[in-house]
């Protein structure tokens, strides 16, 4: 048995700069923890590896034949940006599941009894999931290139497109953290997550122009953040963007709209998530 | 900023109240833990032990009353309380996928230790808790006893002044329990203030300087294990005579020492009488019986066990072998 000396720990509260440093340090430590978990369960990466490939191939070779686009528009060029949008939505459900698992285990009590940042657990999870998103983007870009999708703009626009994808994914992760804490069971989280993902993806211009939808649904789809994201990616990659002619503000200014949507989601859900984290775990 | 009040109390609890919906988990709990001592909070499932610990560790906000830990009020300055305490809950609060070492380093980093200090402290604890060999393996492969030890180590990484252990041995096999007891005794020898909850009377008896008995949200008794046992100051004196013919004579002789009527079991040739314990009692009893020409097979004076005490205090027996999960998720089951 080791000697456990009893020295009064430094119990003075750190200043605000100290707190910020602590939050960053805690976030990195906990992001590492989430990554270790992901790597020890590689099947949890199916969401961001196999799924995008399968869906892309399904849409490209099965569904795509039945979708009519204006002459001269390559369906594959049109499809892949939509796949990016869809994959961001589906990959984010992993955050909800991970947060839900954490809340069910005893480890959250330990974290809450430590003098650590209250936002650390959630910020760490979002950061780790952002790295999973990077994997998804790379897999998807590879699959796209293989089936003939191309970026027709310069490197700066392409980079902006990818950054926008990641920003949106990060914002969505905070929303999913809230979802993970609101639900009691992991099954509930998964089922609701899938429904939400389907709704977000298909009531949008990710795969089909919104013109064919009934009036009210068309409005919902036009203002769906995922429509803005898909339109922004299409613009920035120089892929066909039929939504460009739709007279809805987010589709007229998709890059700005996506940025605002993302910042809005973070501003709304990050504080809410931290709040839920406090109350949920303190029962 | 940390001036402990109440004359060296590491933990001071006054009129603590907490309710969950209709269920009053704590109805005004009061006790102190003097610095450097071990207090055992003893009670059955649903008594309010876990709720008390969760309030003291800032995991739950109390509805009423006051709790001061390490000189800091849990409501007014929970952050300072967290810097003073270590907590080990009922279920191993560990990351299953990381190694034992990485778990400890992570806790150290989250407690504000630098990378190097966290690493050194972890090695020290792994060595001390006999986990050095398994340190590099993921925790999901650990046995129950190893998890408990790692969990305890995790609560010590930041060298807390006050340590809370919530049912540290529930669910462990007897061997692992003994190992845990040794570990806890060593800790205490080093001067850590410890508050532990348990539903095992023997555990409180073994480890605690002071016992607080809690039932249905109120403290029903407190004192040293010895004091609590003397609540039933009476002991039982029992002799086994060699010859069955001597039973009646023996009962007559024992009558001089007894505080109540004798019970005779002729089948096992035992005579039992209630007595008040005092020095030289056994010597005098054996002397008197020998003088009366009675040969003895056995003579014993049995002090009441804490089980007897608990029964006397609460009017119900302790739920040995009851499912500890009743109180596991922080919402104690109502006591039936």
Automatic annotation (TrEMBL), chain A:
CC per GO annotation: ATP-binding cassette (ABC) transporter complex
Protein known as: Transport permease protein
Main location: membrane
Residue ranges of domain ABC transmembrane type-2 in the record: 43-280
Family: Belongs to the ABC-2 integral membrane protein family.
Localization annotation: Cell membrane; Membrane
Gene Ontology terms describing biological process: response to antibiotic
Membrane-related topology note: Multi-pass membrane protein
Spans through the membrane: 45-67, 79-99, 120-149, 161-183, 195-217, 259-277
Keyword check for tRNA-binding: no
Automatic annotation (TrEMBL), chain B:
SUPFAM superfamilies associated with the record: P-loop containing nucleoside triphosphate hydrolases
Entry protein name: ABC-type xenobiotic transporter
Pfam families given in the database record: ABC_tran
Originating species: Streptomyces boncukensis
InterPro entries noted in UniProt: AAA+_ATPase (IPR003593), ABC_transporter-like_ATP-bd (IPR003439), ABC_transporter-like_CS (IPR017871), ABC_transporter_ATP-binding (IPR050763), DrrA (IPR005894), P-loop_NTPase (IPR027417)
Family recorded in the similarity comment: Belongs to the ABC transporter superfamily. Drug exporter-1 (DrugE1) (TC 3.A.1.105) family.
GO molecular function, one term: ATP hydrolysis activity
Residue intervals passing through the bilayer: none
Source organism phylogeny: Bacteria, Bacillati, Actinomycetota, Actinomycetes, Kitasatosporales
């Amino acid at each position: 048995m080791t000697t456990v000396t009893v020295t009064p720990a430094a119990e003075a509260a750190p200043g605000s700069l100290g707190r910020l440093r602590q939050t960053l340090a805690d976030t990195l430590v906990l992001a590492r923890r989430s990554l270790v978990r992901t790597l020890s369960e590689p099947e949890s990466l199916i969401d961001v590896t196999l799924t995008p490939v399968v869906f892309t191939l399904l849409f490209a070779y099965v569904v795509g034949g039945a979708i009519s686009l204006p002459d001269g528009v390559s369906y594959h060029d049109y499809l892949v940006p939509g796949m990016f949008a869809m994959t961001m939505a589906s990959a984010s459900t992993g955050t909800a599941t991970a947060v839900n698992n954490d809340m069910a285990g005893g480890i959250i009590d330990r974290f809450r009894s430590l003098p650590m940042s209250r936002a650390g657990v959630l910020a760490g999870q979002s950061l780790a999931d952002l790295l999973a998103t990077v994997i998804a983007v790379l897999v998807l870009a590879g699959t796209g290139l293989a089936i003939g999708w191309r970026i027709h703009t310069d490197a700066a626009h392409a980079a902006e497109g990818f950054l926008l994808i990641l920003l949106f994914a990060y914002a969505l992760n905070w929303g999913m953290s809230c979802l993970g804490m609101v639900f009691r069971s992991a099954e509930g989280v998964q089922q609701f997550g899938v429904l939400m993902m389907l709704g977000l993806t298909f009531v949008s211009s990710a795969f089909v122009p919104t013109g064919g939808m009934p009036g009210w649904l068309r409005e919902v789809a036009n203002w769906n953040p995922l429509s803005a994201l898909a339109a922004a990616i299409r613009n920035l990659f120089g892929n066909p963007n039929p939504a460009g002619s739709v007279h809805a503000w987010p589709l007229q200014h998709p890059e700005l709209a996506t940025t605002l949507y993302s910042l809005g989601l973070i501003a709304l859900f990050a504080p809410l998530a931290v709040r839920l984290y406090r109350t949920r775990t303190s029962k | 900023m940390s001036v402990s009040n109440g004359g060296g109390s590491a933990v001071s609890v006054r009129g603590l109240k907490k309710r969950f919906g209709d269920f009053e988990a704590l109805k005004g709990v009061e006790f102190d833990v003097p610095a450097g001592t071990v207090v055992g909070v003893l009670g059955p499932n649903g008594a309010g032990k876990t709720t008390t610990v969760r309030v003291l560790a800032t995991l739950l906000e109390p509805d009423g009353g006051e709790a001061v830990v390490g000189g800091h009020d849990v409501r007014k300055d929970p952050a300072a309380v967290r810097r003073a305490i270590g907590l080990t809950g009922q279920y191993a609060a560990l990351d299953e996928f990381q190694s034992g070492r990485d778990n400890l380093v992570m806790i150290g980093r989250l407690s504000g230790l630098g990378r190097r200090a966290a690493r050194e402290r972890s090695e020290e604890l792994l060595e001390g808790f006999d986990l050095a060999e398994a340190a590099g393996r993921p925790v999901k492969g650990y046995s129950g006893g190893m998890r408990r030890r790692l969990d305890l180590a995790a609560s010590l990484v930041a060298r807390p002044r006050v340590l809370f252990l919530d049912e540290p041995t529930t669910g462990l096999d007897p061997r692992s329990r003994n190992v845990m007891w040794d570990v806890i005794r060593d800790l205490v020898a080093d001067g850590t203030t410890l508050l532990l909850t348990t539903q095992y009377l023997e555990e409180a008896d073994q480890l605690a300087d002071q016992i607080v008995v809690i039932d249905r949200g109120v403290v029903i008794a407190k004192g040293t294990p010895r004091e609590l046992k003397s609540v039933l100051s009476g002991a039982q004196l029992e002799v086994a005579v060699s010859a069955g013919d001597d039973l009646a004579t023996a009962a007559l002789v024992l009558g001089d020492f007894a505080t109540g009527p004798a019970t005779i079991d002729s089948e096992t040739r035992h005579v039992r009488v209630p007595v008040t314990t005092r020095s030289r009692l056994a010597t005098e009893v054996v002397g008197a019986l020998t003088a009366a020409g009675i040969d003895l097979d056995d003579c014993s004076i049995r002090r009441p066990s804490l089980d007897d005490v608990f029964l006397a205090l609460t009017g119900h027996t302790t739920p040995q072998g009851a499912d500890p999960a009743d109180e596991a998720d922080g919402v104690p089951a109502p006591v039936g």
